[in-house]
Design goal:
The chain is α/β, with parallel strands linked by helices and about 220 residues long. The protein has one domain: Uracil-DNA glycosylase-like domain (Uracil-DNA Glycosylase, subunit E), CATH 3.40.470. The protein is built from 10 helices and 6 strands; from the N terminus they run H-E-H-E-H-H-H-H-E-E-H-H-E-H-E-H. The strands form 2 sheets. A 4-stranded parallel β-sheet has the order 3-2-5-6. The relative contact order is 0.18.
Length: about 220
């Protein structure tokens, strides 16, 4: 896993936040927040060494991985505040106590990401083992709008997207997935550039939750 994290660390781009190796001085709860996020990602992956499915979306968002350290996963999920959606912290990892890294003054109950909630709830309520899935992004870091600040998202450029290729390769060496699924067209295009022919499901954002649910269940059941 050391090589994987080295790849995550080495890339430095303008208007891109690296949550595992950088501090968000305005919004982080303390100066050690980035190491908490790194430990949480490491724990998440270590509990999925035998995962079968890799779901790859576009990029990390400020409401999700920016503060949780885990793609398509929000602080509120880690804090146990999404149990009404059937999601518990133990679904993410159980080997350590989850922590928030954003200041309560910024978001009282921690950040909540709609995409994260939809994806986790869909898999759990459909009866799938969440430890059988790894969530990742074609562009693994958080691209933000410099005019709006850290608490914003933007679409990464094609050149930026390519920076995530080496990280994907490291992840594929780390875990022997039996199936890779692109969540959205941007991820599909990037995987095609890597020579990976992955089925594509609708991204759950912007009214896509229903189609995402139907398509992801169909793709998973093809392998069962």
């Amino acid at each position: 896993m050391d090589s994987f994290f080295r790849k995550l660390k080495t890339v430095k781009l303008d208007n891109v936040f690296n949550p595992w190796f950088r501090r968000d001085r305005e919004n982080d709860i303390n100066s050690n927040s980035y190491s908490i996020r790194r430990l949480q990602l490491e724990q998440y992956l270590s509990e999925r060494k035998k995962a079968r499915y890799l779901l790859i979306a576009e990029a990390l968002g400020y409401q999700g991985g920016h503060f949780s350290g885990i793609p398509m996963t929000s602080e509120r999920i880690l804090l146990g505040l999404m149990t009404h959606k059937s999601i518990t912290p133990h679904h993410v990892f159980s080997g350590m106590k989850p922590q928030r890294t954003s200041k309560p003054s910024v978001k009282k109950d921690g950040f909540s990401e709609p995409t994260a909630t939809i994806v986790w709830e869909c898999l759990i309520t459909s009866g799938f083992d969440p430890k059988n899935f790894v969530f990742w992004n074609a562009f693994p870091w958080h691209p933000y709008n410099p005019e709006k600040g850290m608490l914003s998202n933007r679409t990464p450029s094609d050149i930026e997207m390519e920076k995530g290729n080496e990280v994907i390769h490291e992840l594929l060496h780390l875990i022997n997935f039996s199936k890779i699924i692109a969540v959205g067209n941007k991820a599909k295009v990037q995987l095609e550039k890597l020579g990976i022919d992955a089925p594509t499901v609708r991204h759950p954002a912007n009214g896509g939750a229903g189609k995402f649910r139907d398509q992801i269940i169909k793709e998973i059941k093809k392998r069962q």
